[in-house]
Design a protein that fits this description.
The chain is α/β, with parallel strands linked by helices. The chain has 3 domains: 269 residues, Aspartate Aminotransferase, domain 2 (3-Layer(aba) Sandwich), CATH 3.40.640.10; 96 residues, Aspartate Aminotransferase, domain 1; 76 residues, Molybdopterin biosynthesis moea protein, domain 2. 36% of the residues lie in helices and 14% in strands. The chain contains 16 helices and 15 strands. A hairpin with a 3-residue loop joins β11 and β12. α3 runs parallel beside α11, α4 runs parallel beside α5 and α4 crosses α10. The longest helix has 19 residues. The relative contact order is 0.11. Bound molecules: pyridoxal-5'-phosphate. The site of pyridoxal-5'-phosphate has 14 residues, from α4.
Length: 473
């Protein structure tokens, strides 16, 4: 299929060239309602709706269908869908399409919160599997075939397995082996590949999930490819999943007025990726290596080496106990990281050179000066809680609906069942799951994160947590 085409993007630009008089929504009328213009004028010019020639996301038969088909061909799926509410909506639809109320789904413990929300909406029973702890990365990053098999043997009625690949830091694992194992049990493998869309460009990137055998894959095109924020894909890789149910949930969960700039940015991002030659990728990787060298020359942090399992577009700075303080120092010179944890700062590259290396070097000299001043600041060490390999919740989602909740101070929380997930954000991965029994090590970890300055999406997190009342202790 012609990868040079970008039918939806071109139709939108063509529509604008007609100098249309809008007698339809949206109410900004291509931005003309603002007599003095606005900062987002250029976006409003192409913020159209389902008029003739621009198709309809929920019943595509024109340019949107063509753009989705070209994307499907590029990514190697049976069918691909444009998403306008991020991988979030893809994860929700994927879980809802796989699970009826009460069904079991095997899920990676450190999944994104959208997966947990999908499970709760579906009324499914999650069986959590923890990836292996890696001393080398100080993270739970490697999902093994053995751990998945252990869960599949213990829960033979599970309707599927849902994994995150790669993790936020770009670390992958032997997904192909895991996919074969899951398929041996006759169930689908669902993959949240929010951070891995560019793996489709081939070496030196790790193998993409679809190619490794995943049955449904969700990707945020806005994270690592040049699409607009929220623009994402859902790909179907086999007939082990019910595409009719997937479509049903996508049209139920997504707006009936999906944004044309978002959708067209998916068309454009796919076109950009398909247009990148091997030489373009080599030039990009050379740039990345040059930047890595600049960061490696600083004594203030450690840059772990890349392995064959790592995405080269992620750069990690390690500084034990001071990740948040380091991120602050970088931000003070206008270098904004993707995220900080207690001991790491994550920087991500795009699919092109977007700054001058000399400018970066100048700014890092200022960071150096600041960190020398900061060096006496105490570091706070945090041990990550150790997770069981296979674990279910203490309370089912349907019991949670019926059970009253109460506020609980941290000193009394050990052994209680959490009525809310504890979510440092980013990355939006739960330290405590809703419905999980709270352990001492989780409490210690959360309190250390608070002291270090981590951001949470929970109210009053400094003092305590909402727990379920009753006999669950
Ligand atoms: C692993 C993972 N999955 C899903 C999401 C949600 O993606 P989106 O922001 O595209 O909705 C995120 C967001 O950070 C994520 O890290």
């Amino acid at each position: 299929m012609e990868q040079k085409k970008k039918p939806l993007y071109d139709a939108l630009v063509q529509h604008q060239k007609k100098d249309p008089i809008s007698f339809h929504v949206p109410g900004h009328k291509f931005g003309r309602v603002y007599p003095d213009g606005t900062a987002f004028e250029s976006v409003l010019h192409i913020d159209a709706t389902e008029v003739s020639g621009l198709d309809d996301l929920h019943a595509p038969e024109g340019v949107i269908k063509e753009a989705q088909d070209i994307a499907s061909h590029y990514f190697g799926s049976l069918e691909s869908f444009f998403l306008v509410n991020g991988s979030t909506v893809g994860n929700l639809a994927m879980v809802l399409a796989t699970c009826h109320p009460g069904d079991q789904l095997i899920v990676q413990r450190n999944c994104h919160k959208s997966v947990l929300n999908g499970l709760e909406l579906a009324g499914a029973e999650p069986i959590f599997v923890a990836p292996e702890w890696e001393e080398e990365t100080n993270r739970y990053s490697v999902m093994t075939k053995e751990a998945i098999k252990q869960a599949l043997d213990a829960y033979p009625d599970a309707k599927g397995v849902l994994l995150t690949y790669p993790d936020y830091f770009g670390r992958t694992y032997a997904l192909r082996e895991v996919a074969e194992c899951v398929h041996d049990y006759g169930i689908p493998l669902l993959v949240d590949e929010a951070h891995g869309i560019h793996f489709h460009m081939g070496a030196p990137f790790p193998e993409p999930a679809l190619q490794a055998g995943a049955d449904v894959v969700v990707q945020s095109a806005h994270k690592m490819a040049p699409a607009m924020t929220m623009a994402s894909f859902l790909h179907v890789g086999s007939d082990r999943v019910n595409t009719r149910r997937l479509k049903h949930y996508l049209q139920m969960l997504q707006s009936s007025s999906p944004s044309y700039p978002l959708m067209a940015s998916l068309d454009l991002a796919r076109h950009y990726m398909a247009g990148m030659t091997e030489e373009d990728v080599r030039v990009l990787i050379r740039f990345v290596m040059e930047v890595r060298d600049v960061f490696r020359s600083s004594p203030h942090w450690n840059v772990p080496p890349l392995t064959e399992w790592d995405d080269p577009l992620k750069l990690i700075l390690e500084k034990e106990g001071s990740g948040f303080a380091l991120a602050e120092a970088l931000e003070s010179v206008g270098l904004f990281p993707e995220l900080a944890t207690s001991g790491q700062v994550l920087l991500t590259f795009g699919l092109g050179e977007s700054f001058e290396v000399e400018d970066l070097k100048r700014r890092l000299m200022d960071v150096d000066r600041q960190l020398k001043k900061q060096s006496k600041r105490a570091t706070i060490k945090v041990d990550q809680p150790r997770l069981p390999v296979v674990q279910s919740l203490a309370l089912s989602f349907s019991d949670m609906i019926e059970t009253p909740v109460k506020w609980c101070r941290w000193q009394d929380a050990e052994g209680e069942v959490a009525a809310e997930a504890v979510l440092p954000y980013p990355p939006g991965i739960a330290v405590v799951l809703k419905g999980e029994r709270i352990s001492r090590s989780q409490i210690d970890y959360i309190q250390a994160l608070i002291k270090q300055g981590a951001s949470f999406q929970n109210e009053q997190i400094e003092q305590g947590i909402m727990v379920f009342k009753g006999e669950w202790k």
